[in-house]
Specification:
10 strands; six-stranded mixed β-sheet; alpha/beta
Length: 258
């Protein structure tokens, strides 16, 4: 499937069917096809809500979202969107392969053998071909999250939405998962929209970082990350990485005037 860009204009979101408090205000975002874009911000700024709006999963109170030449809602129905949630939510009685195949089976994405091949290919892509027969309790946290990613990839979506997928992992595993995700993106070049509150994770993974503010949620700055690819953990020691980190921290933690 050809990767698609996202274009959002005047997006607004309120609680209570449009009558409640403002969550997101007047957002305009352009996401290029095949790019890796991160929504970075503190808890409560509406990152996850905006992610789902950009992917057509939620309908905004106001504004519009286009995915390629298609309305966002239609893109969801056409299985162009894959979602990786914060926690894997694997079915405990199904193997890694069966969990990876599950969404495609439910969506009717081909016959039995086609679905299995797609799931096997996705597990191979995330480096879990050897674990396809294991049950969730036999997997580490990082492995379980990779099955979750494979489950989304097996749908062959144009766009991958990732809602803080590594937030519950320990620091070492999280770094390993970031490297694996960078490899997956490089090989598939799907459009990825990624949510995090980790500055270093945002810099390491992204082409573009949209920094979000709160009350109401809004984009306060868009930063292009001009670090060369492919990226490994060595990039954390680069002077430019430190410059991005300092700048983004200042935008997330504005200094209080004396």
């Amino acid at each position: 499937m050809v990767s698609s860009g996202i274009s959002a204009h005047g997006v607004e979101m309120r609680y209570g069917r449009g009558a409640g408090p403002l969550i997101l205000e007047n957002l305009d975002i352009e996401i290029a096809a095949g790019s890796f874009v991160t929504l970075l911000g503190p808890s409560g700024c509406g990152k996850s809500t905006l992610l789902k709006i950009l992917g057509g999963i939620l309908e905004p109170t106001a504004g519009s979202v286009q995915i390629g030449d298609t309305e966002a809602g239609a893109a969801v129905k056409n299985r162009q969107i894959g979602l990786v949630p914060q926690r894997p939510a694997l079915l405990p009685w199904k193997t890694a392969l069966q969990n990876a195949a599950m969404l495609r089976e439910i969506a009717g994405g081909g016959r039995g053998r086609q679905v299995q091949v797609a799931a096997e290919d996705a597990l191979r892509l995330v480096g879990l071909d050897h674990a396809k027969g294991k049950l969730p309790h036999e997997l580490s946290g990082g492995m379980a999250q990779r099955v979750s990613i494979a489950r989304a990839l097996a749908m062959d979506p144009a766009i991958l939405l990732m809602d803080e997928p590594f937030g519950a992992l320990d620091a070492i595993t999280r770094d390993e998962m970031n490297e694996k995700l960078a490899e997956i993106w490089a090989s598939t070049r799907k459009t990825v929209v990624f949510v995090t509150h980790s500055i270093s994770e945002a810099i390491f993974l992204s082409d573009v970082v949209h920094v979000m503010g709160v009350n109401p949620g809004r984009v306060v700055e868009t930063v292009e990350i001009e670090l060369s690819r492919p990226r490994t953990r060595d990039v954390f020691d680069a002077p430019l990485f430190a410059e991005y980190s300092s700048h983004l921290r200042d935008r997330l933690e504005p200094r209080v005037a004396a």
